[in-house]
Design goal:
Blueprint: H1 2-36, H2 42-51, H3 56-64, H4 75-109
């Protein structure tokens, strides 16, 4: 029984780390994109897109950004956005592994 608790805590930790990491990467990607488009308050757009329920903030950002063409997107910013996309993917992998581990543990112990 103690192994089950330990494995459950480890899997839950994987999920939490993956979720937090993915949300942070989405925040930074949106902030960089908004900055490159010259939008007002890029940090606020990043916050809304990463933290609203049901991703409604991200949807609003994607709709609103159509009115702002890319003004200044340097090669450095392109590389950073690509890097953050890969990091977000890694966070999603952690989230999926933790969820699969919890589901498997639930089946085995339940």
């Amino acid at each position: 029984m103690e192994r089950g608790w330990i494995l459950g805590i480890v899997c839950f930790s994987f999920m939490i780390v993956g979720a937090m990491h993915t949300v942070w990467q989405i925040f930074k990607i949106v902030e960089l994109d908004a900055r490159s488009r010259g939008m007002k308050h890029p940090g606020l757009w990043g916050f809304l897109s990463a933290n609203t329920n049901g991703s409604s903030g991200l949807i609003l950002y994607l709709i609103g950004r159509r009115n702002y063409p890319v003004i200044s997107l340097s090669e450095k910013m392109k590389k950073e956005i690509d890097s953050r996309k890969k990091r977000a993917g890694a966070g999603l992998v952690f989230l999926a592994v933790g969820g699969a581990g919890l589901a498997t543990l639930g089946v085995l112990l339940g």
